[in-house]
């Protein structure tokens, strides 16, 4: 077998590689595998010799019918698809609708997971054989079986383009992330539009840095003034919006970066913030400015994420520690000379103000990024992909794959670190093989990717893993475990990359960058030595990582490396759903309650499966676990849960809801794992609505000091263009057309109208309610009109003559007068519920058990007494009797077999291999009467099984996703877009969003 590298370089290409004779010597790996000059020798990890992975599982046929849960229309239908019995309904739906190839209803349409996996795995195996990756036939079979087993059992997944394209007649595009470049010429700018369009058409995203383009403060050779990069962003934004609307495999995603020393930086920083002001004005004028609304297309710059590339010099100047204090020079793009001096603190203030207003721009830390650059002799790192996790040379791409961390946690809570490291080696090998046969959208990207072979292995389910092992996300123990696992992944990936270099050659650009690459490897290894372990799992992982780094450094000295980059932490949106992950990427859990689809149609809300596992890891007995889970099912959080110790509350902190993780907790987690990632981390730091501009500035400054490469924030409710419910949207946007009136012969005098006060009669019905909120006692007296309708409110709280009593009297008068002037009661309820301040907590009202403040309780009580149920449903307010009756009406009259199915579904959903009934056993259609697949049904009343799983009695309304369920539980709208495919509200996934209904994403997966 001739040993040649697939990029055309000689076998000995790359500095530090020994002669052919010495390369034929076997180098044993830490995973018990070896390499020779003829390829890799592989040993089995999950599989059994002589047994195919498909023969080890039970297969069943299912019907996939996906509908828009709001109107019941069918989005997708394919019946009789074949999947293992332990795959969830959601994973089945998403893989069938997103990844099966061939026209639906034709014989060429894929109908089995076997076909999908074989299409990909056999293509990889053939390419590996052709390019000399395997030492022999036995090694080829081991590779094929191990890859098949891991995909079959949801241990890992390739990024979406692999499933879209590999093994089909389409171009074999395997990369999800692209970085482009643009120069200061019109030809280059127009080519930028073209290249972006091609990438968007294929369902991927791209990023680029516009800093080479002359600013609007510089002259053209003709004597005129340059347009500046911001002007050209308009054309690119319109192009992206048009292609996105065309509806390819998923929405277009893009990133635009500008250096902080560009003379147009202030204009760039404020572009989206100014557009947000425009959105507000247009909305107030009656235009439909919701995301996806008819009029939102008139707003510019909405199709890209914007980031400012800041330098260490600039950040020091912000703190007044620059060579000229806070003075900072903006430089000409042509000569590099300073053409304007600005105050760095003032410019930084504009950046943080804009981010506070509309979440853009994010920050990329240029010096940190390039300090970890493995190929600096071939060019700087100037930009990133849309989600900010892939960072490397211009005109390059990266294919991604992610491992499901929870698959490596045993039932007794032990993280199987050695097995994890071996799995990483198999996955990184497959990822590198893909570059041998992959197609790319442009010739420059083809050349760069084949020359540098950038890979992006990562993981998902970190948040679930930490909770399941009893670690708080924002804790030293949690960060220690995350860092040790990430370090082990990076060491194993680069170790295999060095073995591949010995077998099939280092990457073409390695010779020129050998010293820089080895320096970065040593930086990773040094960072590994700084990890401080606190528990058994992180200690074991760190020990293996330390040994792996020593071996990786040694192998790299001998053979070089096959890949310029090895890892990123991507959002894992669609593929996270494919693997049935509870959490995506590096994210914590979204909330403690979860939206679950049922076999045969319909859905229900349950407490996350990780919760009972975490309680058992913390030492709680089955009875205690059941009590806590039941409490979470009712309240959506753990505060005051029976028997749960307060020191354990933090283990159950989530991204949203009660006890949400503090913004700096997200930053600290990113800082713990960033030293062990080749690229960066796709993650948005969520901030509460009441966060200040100074809070944003602190996040951005700490991100720089902690060594992050990129950082973006999102302040709750900072954007106007957020989707409303269907009902709400119709109310706010529907306009009745008015026929033009005939011209009057004489202009009529203007008629001035205004609100008219409707006073209460002298004698009117009223009621008084005594209440207790968090230990504070008070009285609520309400008076109504004789023909119904609330007309006055009196609140007695605090001692007579006290300031509090006086304020409450004044507040009562203001509300009463407003009601009499015609302000709808529901407007008051919407404004004053969910206010959060002390006193707060438990109440003595059976209809409102917990209140976030006295105001929250009072207006919920008023709504229950005076608003009809349909209006309260929109506000998420029901009485205890109504909730009980609602559940009884839904399930009380049903057949016992139907109820047993629901209970059985609950019991099996927490098993390692739950039994999922095939659709053909439920009447063929697989859709229960009145509950099409993808629609939301009401919560189920069933006793909590011994596993600790319990159904959640949703407080009101209907939900179509976990985000919408969370909104019902916390009574607060979540800033997430509606899915363009099925209309379901998406949930955060890294710096992007993913739809739980159909798997669509807004960025990389």
Automatic annotation (TrEMBL):
Residue ranges occupied by any Ribonucleotide reductase large subunit C-terminal domain in the UniProt entry: 175-714
Chain positions covered by the region annotation Disordered: 1-40, 726-765, 920-956
Cofactor names: adenosylcob(III)alamin
Domain of life where this protein originates: Bacteria
UniProt catalytic activity: a 2'-deoxyribonucleoside 5'-diphosphate + [thioredoxin]-disulfide + H2O = a ribonucleoside 5'-diphosphate + [thioredoxin]-dithiol
Domain TSCPD: 761-865
Low complexity bias (residue ranges): 737-751
UniProt keyword terms in alphabetical order: Cobalamin, Cobalt, Disulfide bond, DNA synthesis, Nucleotide-binding, Oxidoreductase
Skewed-composition ranges (Polar residues): 1-10
Keyword ATP-binding: no
Compositional bias of kind Basic residues: 755-765
NCBIfam families for the chain: NrdJ_Z, PRK06556.1
Family: Belongs to the ribonucleoside diphosphate reductase class-2 family.
Function: Catalyzes the reduction of ribonucleotides to deoxyribonucleotides. May function to provide a pool of deoxyribonucleotide precursors for DNA repair during oxygen limitation and/or for immediate growth after restoration of oxygen.
UniProt-recorded name of the protein: Vitamin B12-dependent ribonucleotide reductase
The organism of origin for this protein: Nakamurella leprariae
């Amino acid at each position: 077998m001739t040993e040649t590298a697939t990029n055309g370089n000689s076998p000995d290409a790359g500095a530090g590689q020994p002669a052919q004779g010495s390369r034929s010597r076997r180098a044993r790996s830490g995973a018990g595998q070896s390499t020779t000059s003829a390829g890799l020798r592989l040993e089995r990890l999950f599989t059994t010799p002589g047994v195919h992975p498909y023969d080890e599982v039970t297969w069943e046929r299912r019907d996939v019918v996906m509908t828009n849960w709001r109107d019941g229309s069918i989005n997708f239908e394919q019946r009789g698809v074949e999947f293992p019995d332990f795959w969830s309904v959601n994973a089945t739906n998403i893989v069938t609708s997103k990844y099966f190839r061939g026209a639906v209803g034709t014989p060429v349409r894929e109908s089995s997971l076997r076909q999908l996996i074989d299409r990909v795995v056999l293509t990889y195996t053939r390419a590996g054989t052709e390019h000399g990756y395997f030492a022999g036939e036995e090694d080829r079979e081991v590779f094929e079986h191990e890859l098949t087993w891991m995909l079959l059992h949801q241990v890992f997944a390739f990024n979406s383009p692999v499933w879209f394209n590999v093994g089909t007649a389409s171009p074999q595009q395997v990369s999800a992330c692209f970085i482009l470049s643009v120069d200061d010429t019109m030809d280059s700018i127009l080519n930028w539009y073209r290249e972006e369009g091609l990438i968007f058409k294929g369902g991927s995203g791209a990023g680029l840095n516009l800093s080479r383009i002359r600013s609007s403060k510089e002259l053209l050779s003709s004597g005129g003034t340059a347009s500046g990069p911001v002007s050209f962003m308009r054309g690119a934004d319109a192009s992206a919006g048009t292609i996105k609307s065309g509806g390819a495999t998923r929405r277009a995603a893009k990133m635009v970066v500008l250096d902080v020393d560009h003379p147009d930086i202030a204009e760039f920083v404020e572009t989206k913030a100014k557009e947000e002001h425009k959105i507000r004005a247009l909305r107030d004028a009656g235009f439909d400015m919701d995301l996806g609304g008819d009029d939102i297309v008139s707003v510019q710059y909405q199709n890209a994420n914007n980031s400012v590339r800041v330098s260490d010099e600039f950040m020091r100047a912000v703190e007044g520690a620059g060579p000229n204090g806070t003075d900072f020079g903006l430089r000409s793009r042509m000569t590099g000379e300073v053409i304007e001096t600005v105050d760095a603190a003032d410019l930084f203030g504009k950046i943080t103000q804009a981010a506070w207003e509309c979440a853009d721009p994010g920050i990329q830390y240029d010096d940190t990024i390039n300090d970890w650059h493995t190929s600096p002799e071939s060019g700087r790192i100037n930009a990133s992909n849309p989600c900010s996790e892939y960072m490397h040379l211009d005109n390059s791409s990266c294919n991604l794959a992610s491992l499901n961390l929870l698959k490596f946690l045993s039932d007794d809570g032990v993280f199987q670190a050695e097995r994890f490291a071996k799995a990483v080696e198999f996955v990184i090998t497959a990822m590198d093989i893909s570059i041998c046969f992959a197609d790319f959208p442009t010739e420059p990207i083809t050349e760069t990717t084949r020359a540098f072979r950038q890979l992006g292995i990562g993981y998902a389910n970190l948040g679930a893993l930490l909770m399941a092992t009893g670690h708080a996300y924002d804790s030293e123990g949690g960060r220690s475990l995350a860092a040790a696992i990430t370090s082990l992944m990076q060491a194993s990936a680069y170790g295999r990359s060095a073995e591949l270099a010995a077998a099939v050659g280092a990457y073409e650009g390695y010779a020129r960058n050998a010293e820089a690459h080895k320096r970065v490897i040593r930086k990773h290894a040094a960072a590994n030595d700084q990890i401080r372990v606190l528990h058994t799992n992180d200690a074991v992982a760190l020990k293996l990582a330390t040994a792996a780094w020593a071996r990786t450094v040694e192998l790299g000295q001998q053979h070089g490396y096959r890949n310029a980059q090895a890892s990123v932490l991507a959002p894992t949106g669609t593929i996270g759903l494919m693997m049935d992950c509870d959490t995506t990427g590096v994210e914590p859990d979204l909330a403690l309650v979860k939206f679950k689809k049922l076999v045969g149609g319909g859905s229900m809300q349950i407490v996350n499966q990780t919760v009972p596992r975490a309680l058992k890891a913390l030492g709680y007995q089955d009875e205690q676990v059941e009590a806590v889970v039941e409490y979470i099912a009712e309240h959506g959080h753990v505060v005051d849960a029976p028997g749960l110790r307060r020191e354990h509350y933090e283990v159950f902190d989530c991204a949203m809801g009660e006890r949400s993780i503090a913004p700096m907790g997200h930053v600290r987690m990113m800082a713990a794992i960033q030293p062990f990632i080749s690229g960066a981390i796709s993650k948005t730091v969520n901030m509460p609505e009441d966060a200040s501009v100074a809070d944003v500035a602190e996040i951005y400054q700490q991100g720089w000091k902690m060594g992050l490469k990129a950082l973006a924030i999102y302040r709750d409710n900072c954007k106007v263009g957020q989707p409303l419910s269907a009902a709400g949207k119709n109310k706010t946007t529907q306009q009745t057309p008015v026929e033009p009136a005939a011209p009057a012969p004489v202009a009529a005098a203007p008629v001035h109208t205004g609100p008219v006060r409707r006073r209460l009669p002298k004698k009117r019905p009223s009621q008084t309610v005594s209440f207790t909120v968090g230990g504070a006692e008070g009285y609520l007296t309400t008076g109504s009109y004789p023909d119904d309708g609330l007309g006055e409110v009196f609140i007695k709280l605090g001692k007579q003559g006290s300031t509090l009593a006086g304020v409450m009297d004044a507040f009562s008068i203001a509300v009463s007068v407003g009601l009499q002037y015609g302000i709808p009661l529901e407007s008051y309820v919407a404004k004053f519920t969910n206010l959060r301040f002390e006193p707060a907590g438990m109440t003595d009202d059976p209809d409102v058990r917990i209140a976030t403040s006295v105001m929250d309780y009072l207006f919920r009580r008023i709504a229950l007494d005076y608003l009809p149920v349909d209006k309260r449903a929109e506000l998420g307010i029901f009485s205890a009797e109504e909730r009980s009756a609602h559940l009884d009406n839904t399930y009380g009259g049903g057949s016992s077999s139907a109820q047993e199915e629901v209970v059985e579904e609950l019991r099996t959903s927490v098993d390692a291999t739950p039994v999922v009934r095939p659709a053909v056993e439920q009447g063929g259609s697989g859709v229960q009467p009145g509950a099409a697949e993808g629609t939301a049904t009401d919560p189920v009343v069933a006793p909590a099984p011994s596993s600790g799983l319990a159904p959640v009695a949703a407080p009101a309304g209907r939900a179509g996703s976990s985000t919408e369920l969370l909104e019902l539980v916390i009574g607060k709208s979540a800033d997430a877009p509606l899915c363009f495919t099925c209309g379901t509200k998406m949930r955060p996934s890294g710096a992007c969003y993913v739809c739980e209904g159909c798997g669509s994403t807004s960025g990389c997966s």
